[in-house]
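Recap slide: Cytochrome c family protein, sequence and predicted structure.
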Amino acid sequence: MFDTMTVTKAAAGLFGAFLALLLAKWAAETVYHVGGHGDEPAYAIEVAEAEEASGTEETVSFEELMASADAAKGEKVFKKCAACHKVNGEDATGPHLDGVVGRAVASVAGFGYSGAMQGHGGDWTPEALDEFLTKPSAAVPGTSMSFSGLKKQGDRVDLIAYLQSVSN
């Protein structure tokens, strides 16, 4: 079945293929090497417009963002929340969110809030919701809400506008 010559041929084929791959890698690194010295980049792309634009950023107030928020877009963003929250007055994994804007934190009767959320206090103002929706675990350390947050401010204000529109 297997004799010494068959094993030798199989090993030679395997090692030969490995050697060919190593030589090809060495040749590719030599041909396509883009080296700099130390920490210097091999090449630089100058972008004057980006440097000029970074100094001229204008900030928009939260009130202006809320005034231009789109509740229809917020309804689409709410689909990320719909896995755990409802807006029809029924609790799910999370408490219902209809009427959340202006409501006291951890105030839905019968819902089992985490200790961190119960100890947070305050009201769900649009500003508080914006901070919480950015990263819930940073706004209320120890919350049992595992959502990572909404990075885009536009998505957050649209969602808050939608939640205001479904308030009772």
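The longest helix spans residues 4-31.
The two ends are 82 Å apart (CA to CA).
(End of recap.)
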